Predict the structure.
Amino acid sequence: MHFNGGTIRWMPVDPYCNGSSTTITIIQSYWWSYPIITCATNVPISTAGRSSQNRNLTCITDCSTDGGYSIMPVDILTDCTSTSSPLGMMASQRSVNTTLTPNAHFYLAHVGSAWIALNYPAQSGLQWSLTTFIDLRKRSDGYINTPPIASVASPQYVVVNKTTQIQIPVSDVNAGDDIRCRWSIYTPGYRRRKRWDEDEERINDEDDAQLYKAAVKNEETIHTRKKRGKCSGCGSVCAYNSNCCCSMCASTTCTGSTCTSTAGCPVVSTTVETPGTLMSTLSYPTRQPIDECGGICYPASVPSGTTLPNCTLSFTGLQTGSWYGIAIQVRINSNYE
Amino acid sequence: MSSVPVQFLIYVLPQPTCSNVPIILPLTECLEVTVGVMQSFNLSVINLCNPNDTDIVDIIISQGITGMQMGNLTTSPINASLVYVTFTWTPQANQIGQQQLCVTAYTR
């Protein structure tokens, strides 16, 4: 896909906004292989052969409080801002305003496929999921927090067998905010009467709460992963050799559109959440999983010993010629919550 | 609490001929600029390897400032180990306050 990562950030146009609606600016910044991807507007569909590769940033969790985002979604297109021919790198960016109802809070993701073959031994077909949490609820001091800005050029290069520190440059407009970095994670969803444990792989797809009803055709091209609706007969797990759920399979044992693990492939997420269903034993409503890392979740995505103290990545590559994917979330450790 | 994602790739290179990292000048500096007045400044990189083996191949902006342009990488005519780029920028009123520029220099 020649997509090399990036960041999605947002900021309120007016942090002190008190009206009946709140306008935010969503800024997407991505890195690409150049000149494979053309430097132009509307990256990447402006590259020959990629005209079908647009999609929207989608709400993946807490969508009942998305403030109306789903009515006017933002797509993933950006515009080329700079290139380096000697390094084969291209950067792109686009800012889009969207208006939401006050106090909206939801998880917005750019999901796609696939990264260049990553890790050692190399695995191809790994999907990406860049997830940002948009929270318009005002801080206790009365205004909407503007999240930090973080930006790392991609790719980064390290020398084999040499521990390298890669600093994540972070900054924040709100003076006094304490910026923290952590590994991006996959948070499983849960539903009525059962706590779905990611470590438990269930091949039995009969369940008390049948959330997945209608079968939806899975149209998936080799290089574009499209999110589809609910599957039938899959429950919370893609059965071995099943097709419909595997567009959302998290495990790398899911190849293309088929789950190839005999233990089943866990489903990453579905579309619209069922609001307001209370669990009988726990006090949380039904909730969708939050996938912040796609196929590059720590620690399996990096050599052992990789750490992330104080927004600086400490990494030692042991295999010349191998690629690794790094997924980090940057947030504020705020006293205003 | 709001969070933003940062995702990037790492590529593992073989041992280079020379492992001295270059020096970027100025290392840290805060420039005072005025709205509406065009600014121009140079950012230099010193190659600490033998330029016959290893060159500064390019400078990448990892975090830019809106409206700031970077010129082409130029080798100093008097010192083959020194390269520089020229940045030009006319600050706008909505940029008042601190703006941060981050760059990375790559050698080969």
Remarks:
- The longest strand of chain B covers residues 3-13.
